[in-house]
Amino acid sequence: xxxxxxxxxxxxxxxxxxxxxxxxxxxxxxxxxxxxxxxxxxxxxxxxxxxxxxxxxxxxxxxxxxxxxxxxxxxxxxxxxxxxxxxxxxxxxxxxxxxxxxxxxxxxxxxxxxxxxxxxxxxxxxxxxxxxxxxxxxxxxxxxxxxxxxxxxxxxxxxxxxxxxxxxxxxxxxxxxxxxxxxxxxxxxxxxxxxxxxxxxxxxxxxxxxxxxxxxxxxxxxxxxxxxxxxxxxxxxxx
Length: 239
Ligand SMILES: C[S@@+](CC[C@H](N)C(=O)[O-])C[C@H]1O[C@@H](n2cnc3c(N)ncnc32)[C@H](O)[C@@H]1O
What we know:
The chain has one domain (about 5-239): 3-Layer(aba) Sandwich (Rossmann fold), CATH 3.40.50. The protein contains 7 helices and 7 strands. It has helices spanning about 5-15, 25-45, 45-55, 70, 85-95, 130-140, 205-225; strands at about 55-60, 75-80, 100, 115-120, 140-150, 185-190, 230-239. A 7-stranded mixed β-sheet has the order 3-2-1-4-5-7-6. The radius of gyration is 17 Å and the shape is globular. It starts with a helix and ends with a strand. The structure holds S-adenosylmethionine (SAM).
């Protein structure tokens, strides 16, 4: 059994050399689909809109190279990631000089009660001590602050890894993982139901299918396969 520090070091190294721009275009298409769905969910959340209106302080925890930067760029936001190279790429892509911090979700370099909103998207599946991570996120949130998590759903009907063949520690999470003291679960949804078989389509057909057919079905599939989408989005409020 590997020691926790070694596992974290493997994850850091993996993301230091993670270059999704070199992935085959069908994977990029599927990643774009997830991104589109996440942005749509967050933009329509009243908790996010409320914090935006109040110009609250935001942390994008495990920001990677900034896929979700458009959601937070006009807010007072700090960006944290374990991987220095991802942060460097992030800065290069968007021409940023500051606001990026290299750090670990298990030991956040912030004072208690700093943030109104924390986004933690596609990160917690790599964290062994999810309870410690949730405690840290709870500590740095203000009272009534909101934590929004997106993670691979353990209860998904799609069992296949869709984007990556992860050679590092990762596992799906379920709602139960978020029923922890100090947080009230405000809402949750699961999303993304595209079966892996669609990967065989030529990319231009896949794109066409997603735009013209799949995106129109997504909401119905959320009702039909309640709780069984590939990804879980949970909104927690510090109580
Ligand atoms: C799949 S990427 C997601 C990046 C971004 N949130 C997105 O959705 O595009 C996972 C990110 O989590 C970061 N990460 C993994 N373990 C972490 C930890 N213990 N503390 C902080 N960041 C971590 C990785 O370095 C990587 O950038």
